[in-house]
Design goal:
The chain is of the alpha+beta class. Helix content is 28%, strand content 27%. The termini are far apart.
Length: 102
């Protein structure tokens, strides 16, 4: 990295049910999302992360690994869903309907 290349400040975030890991980095502008994630070291900390499977986003918006980040971006690595949220809502609605009929 040359000192004449502008740096941007970003965060790489991975959340588990009981803990959230936030890593702050300064990287060269125009660095890809994948390269930033790799530079953060989070893939070593959490070997279960597979960038071919886990989706990534910036502030809850999905992005591709070859996209670039902007200064202040929060790069989020998402875990696969355990259950479909639509299915959970449907089951809750059915249960509420049954409870109301009692």
């Amino acid at each position: 990295m040359h000192s004449d290349q502008p740096l941007i400040h970003v965060e790489v975030v991975f959340a588990l049910p009981n803990v959230q890991r936030v890593l702050k980095l300064a990287v060269v502008a125009e660095t890809s999302i994948q390269a930033i994630i790799e530079q953060s070291g989070i893939l070593t900390m959490y070997p279960e992360i597979d960038l071919n499977i886990n989706k990534v986003g910036i502030y809850s918006r999905n992005v591709k690994l070859d996209a670039t980040a902007r200064d202040g971006d929060r790069i989020e690595i998402y875990r696969p869903l355990v259950a479909d949220p639509r299915e959970i809502r449907r089951k809750r609605a059915e249960q509420a309907k049954k409870d109301a009929e009692k």
